[in-house]
Specification:
The complex is a heterodimer of chains A (37) and B (222). Chain A is mostly helical. Helix content of chain A is 95%, strand content 0%. The longest helix of chain B has 41 residues. The chains are: A mainly alpha (37), B mainly alpha (222).
Chain lengths: 37, 222
């Protein structure tokens, strides 16, 4: 039972982590573009 | 590498520790594992609201050209605090259902956290109602300071004054943690990981706010 719940929690975390990572990169890119303006 | 990015390593470790490494509690069984998520999200909510209050105090005291960014930062941390309060309420309700047989029990701790939630929801209503008003930042800041002052009453005092089904918190009457060593380590690792997650989200939100302000300034300059 704990390992099944752990898998679900892990999948949710991977989703959040991917979202944060992509958002972080996008914001860095925009920051760079604004500084060049 | 910024320290908050360690969350990518620490969070999977916490998930592993909380479900497979730490033992389950004697009476509650595997249901007790929600402790490693319920306590840290409540902890982050309190930190986020304190940061909002501190930012607001600085806004009122300094009132300089950085105030706009500080207002954005206070708004961002309050938003994070609100989301984590909802998470604390939801995880608490799940735990209550497993331990007490019902999601909602009119327990003083459940009621006080909902009142706290309403206080901070009111902040967003106030903030959006004052859009375009010159005093928006100051009024919102004063509200956040007042909210920070009453928060300990709802989080720490009221649940202790009235009889509650809620177990003793970490800061309890005999000042001892009634947890096994592995459970303590897992709980503190989880609190660290959630704190890093808060710092990470707060950092990204503040950077987005800074970008918005810069774009607005550049538009005005044209």
């Amino acid at each position: 039972m704990p390992s099944e719940v752990m898998t679900v929690v892990l999948v949710i975390w991977i989703g959040i982590a991917l979202f944060l990572y992509r958002l972080d990169r996008k914001v860095s890119k925009i920051e760079g573009e604004i500084d060049e303006l | 590498m910024k320290i908050h990015r360690l969350v990518y390593i620490l969070m999977p470790l916490v998930i592993y520790m909380s479900f497979l490494w730490a033992p389950s509690a004697a009476i509650l069984g595997d249901a007790s594992r929600i402790l490693y998520y319920h306590v840290p999200v409540a902890w982050v909510a309190v930190i986020a609201f304190i940061v909002a209050g501190v930012e607001s105090i600085i806004i009122i005291i300094k009132n300089d050209e950085q105030s706009l960014m500080r207002e954005e930062r206070a708004y961002n941390t309050t938003l994070i605090g609100l989301v984590f309060t909802i998470l604390a309420l939801v995880t608490g309700a799940i735990w209550a259902n497993l331990s007490w047989g019902s999601y909602w029990n009119w327990d003083p701790r459940q009621i006080s956290i909902v009142i706290l939630l309403l206080i901070y929801i009111a902040y967003f209503s106030l903030n959006s109602a004052l859009e375009g008003n010159e005093s928006r930042g100051k009024i919102s800041s004063v509200y956040l300071i007042l909210a920070m002052v009453v928060m300990p009453l709802f989080v720490f005092i009221i649940p202790r004054v009235y009889d509650s089904l809620h177990p003793d918190t970490i800061i309890n009457a005999d000042k001892k943690m009634h947890l096994e060593e592995a459970m303590k380590i897992t709980l503190f690792t989880s609190m660290g990981a959630f704190t890093l997650l808060y710092i990470y989200i707060y950092n990204i939100m503040n950077r987005i706010s800074a970008v918005k302000i810069k774009i607005r300034e550049k538009r005005h300059a044209l």
